[in-house]
Design goal:
Largest sheet: 7 strands, parallel
Number of helices: 10
Order of helices and strands: EHEEHEHHEHEEHEEEHEEHEEEHH
Distance between the termini: 58 Å
Number of strands: 15
Structural class: alpha/beta
Strand order of the largest sheet: 3-2-1-4-5-6-11
Helix content: 40-55%
Length: 364
């Protein structure tokens, strides 16, 4: 029987959790790398812990010896490097940390595979990003489009992209880049704009929030469903030869469109008035301003027009980039956040009642 052992960095993230589920369903032994933290909370993979074939190891992309130790112990047949400081805005605030993890961290993995003698037996997937295209030079973007990174995050990721190609050429490694365009889900972090929108729509609908503040409403993105994208990651490593692929839907929308649809899904129709920083999203039924633009959310350099061309992945990997439509994606996220807000509210009421009972001595 063929040995199938996957090692996933960033296993606690959105993509890592979906990829773990996919690989376990395909009979893999799945090993995930986690960082030690005083707050040991891993909600996205909590349902996997304790399952047969799922294992966790402590290591850090900033610590080469810990990476070598895990890779030498696990001897994986596939590595998926999904770990990163992945927030573009944060990369302006923490550029050195971003470079160490997103650039040199990739090198540490490649070197670990080489020094552990796994060059011929381990396939490596590197999670690259559409942010490489940055100040875009053509639309849509494909594998041959020139890069023009426009943030510390993108610059770090460009090093990761090229060092993968270098190790592929220099050491004949099966090392590949997946140039992922924006991919979202109900497991997306709450600081990312799409999740921020769907949570706000749910909270405003349920009376828990008054207003949503956003940055550039005209920024255009190619948004797909993360659950579909991890399937393409796996397909890239099953290919006959190592190569780099754009992972995208080929469909583009603005932040404004995303917000309009999210509020529509909770039963609120938005009307947009004004331009630029003065633009507002107004509830058609009540006339109340629900969305405003805040300069705080503008980036020093902003990428405004990302749009991927998945033709190569469709043709060579037989991957379907439109399995989940944009409209379906937004509804999945909104429905999940409506339930989350309601559950959080119910839990808060239970806590308040318990505190009252304790104060009155009803329960001890």
């Amino acid at each position: 029987m063929e040995r199938k052992v996957a090692l996933i960095t960033g296993v606690t993230g959105q993509d890592g959790s979906y990829l773990s589920e996919l690989l376990l369903s395909k009979g893999y032994d799945v090993h995930g790398i986690i960082r030690r933290s005083s707050v040991d909370f891993r909600p996205r993979i909590a349902h996997l812990e304790g399952q047969k074939g799922f294992h966790l190891h402590y290591a850090d992309l900033g610590d080469s010896m810990s990476i070598v130790g895990v890779i030498d112990k696990v001897r994986p047949t596939e590595i998926y490097n999904l770990a990163a400081q992945s927030h573009v805005q944060v990369s302006f605030d923490s550029p050195e940390f971003t470079a160490d993890v997103d650039a040199v961290g990739v090198l540490r993995i490649l070197e670990a595979v080489r020094v552990c003698g796994l060059t011929d037996s381990c396939r490596i997937y590197q999670a690259s990003t559409s942010e490489l295209y940055g100040k875009v030079e053509e639309v849509p973007q494909n594998e041959n489009t020139p890069f023009h990174p426009y943030s510390p995050y993108a610059v770090a990721k460009q090093y990761g992209f090229w060092i993968v190609k270098e190790y592929r050429d220099a050491y004949n490694m099966f090392a590949c880049n997946g140039i992922l365009f924006n991919h979202e889900s109900e497991r997306r972090g709450e600081t990312f704009v799409t999740r921020k929108i769907t949570l706000a729509a749910a909270r405003i609908k349920q009376g828990k929030q008054d207003k949503l503040f956003l940055g550039n409403l005209s920024s255009r993105r190619d948004w797909g469903y993360a659950k579909d994208y991890v399937e393409c990651m796996w397909l890239i490593l099953q290919n006959d030869k190592p190569d780099d692929f754009v992972i995208a839907t080929g469909v583009q929308h603005t932040v404004r469109e995303f917000a309009t649809l999210a509020f529509h899904d909770v039963g609120i129709e938005l009307e947009w008035k004004g331009e630029g920083a003065d633009e507002k999203g107004i509830d058609k039924a009540t006339g109340k301003v629900l969305v405003e633009v805040s300069p705080d959310f503008y980036r020093p350099t902003d990428v405004v027009n990302l749009w991927g061309d998945p033709t190569k992945a469709k043709a060579q990997l037989n991957w379907n980039p439109n399995k989940t439509s944009f409209e379906e994606l937004v509804k999945i996220m909104v429905d999940s956040d409506m339930k989350k807000v309601a559950a959080d509210d119910a839990a808060a009421k239970v806590r308040v009642n318990l505190e009252e009972y304790l104060e009155k001595g009803i329960v001890k």
